[in-house]
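re: ur question from yesterday

yeah so i grabbed the chain u mentioned. its 428 aa long if i counted rite. heres the sequnce exactly as i have it in my notes:
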Amino acid sequence: MARFMLKIKLLLLLYKVTTTIIAPIIALFQFCRRKKPPYGHRAWEFLGVVPKIDYHKPLWFHTVSVGESMGAIPLIRTLATENPSLNIVVTTATTTARELYRKMPQNVTHLYVPLDSVCAVKRFINRVKPRGLIIMETELWPNLLSALHQKNIPCILINARLSQRSTARYHKLGALFTVAVGQHLTHICCQSKQDAANFASLNLAPQIIETTGSLKFDVKMDQQYQGESAQFTRLIKGRPVLAVASTHEGEEEQVLSIYQQIKKELPELLLIIIPRHPERFAHVFQLCRAKGFKTSRRSQNDLTPQSDILLGDSMGELPFYFGCATLVLMGGSLVDIGGHNPLEAIACNRPVVSGPFVRNFKKIYADLEKEEASLCIELDELPAKLLELLKDQELRNQMCHRATSFLEANSGATAKTLATIKKFIKLD
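ran it thru and got these structure tokens back, copy pasting raw so excuse formatting
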């Protein structure tokens, strides 16, 4: 047994040494990154070098990327509004996720997450002095968790999920997972009973695991965007709108081909394309123009009655685009990316369909299809099916009604999660 524990300690030591060496290299790479938007001087935040200000013992949320951020924002906004004296620090790893926090209450501050090196984590914690860490989904970093545990700072996983594949990988780690990760977690709020069972199988204390549901079902449309969308609809004077959200490389060409086919029967159709990554905005704009389409840009506010396409080249405005749409096609599903979450579009009371590649949201789409509230459409069937839906208002209305009912039936995770956070972390 002693030899086994020594082996674990040596492995953890090796991890600490490796991350200490690699972290400055990663930060330097991000500093030199020329893609738009760049990290710039803020890249040093990855090493824990954050502004030397008084953060007033904040509650720390970590939402690594866009998907996690979109799920957490309603909860963060609720906490910030209900507790105006509570300061909140939100960390992300990507610039795209950072953009989503630009319109948050004043007591919410964005920083980039420290890399999982001992020095970076220690520096960040010592400067920020968080009262607790809330991790969205399953970002489990040994050095970070260990540092929090040493300072008696509670750490809670919320909206936690653990696939069978990930569970099998963690099982292979055996006691190493328990020592490096499991013993440092204060509580785990799981999306489903299956996720809870997967966590429990890793020899974690059963009392720290509960099922609270998925926060993504509690998404609401921002009233600000609702007004802006209504204004846009009046501006285009009733033109039907197909919004294709969060597209990836290889999808825009397919969308333009589909649009060209539909336009023969629906010439007044306006296409809105919203690329997932801002560094691709210029490329997609040129692609649309090269195909012969009159293309306007949201950032330029240059839409005219003659425009065929509006490029959604703004960040954090998906609710606006959804609100403008007659029909929403979710990107990431026409190539094998795994799809994107359709629930925000549904919350905007819009009919939503997807291509066939939706493995990342397989259960949500399966449940929606079971309720006849959405469709996953094969690539060769997309032009005909999209045209059918764009022409059939009654069918779209039925899909919206069933989808919003499904959303409401699965809501409530925010309240349960808030109750758990307040149980383990003092907020006043």
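noticed a couple things. The chain has a mean pLDDT of 91. also Residues 2-32 form the longest helix (31 residues).
anyway ttyl
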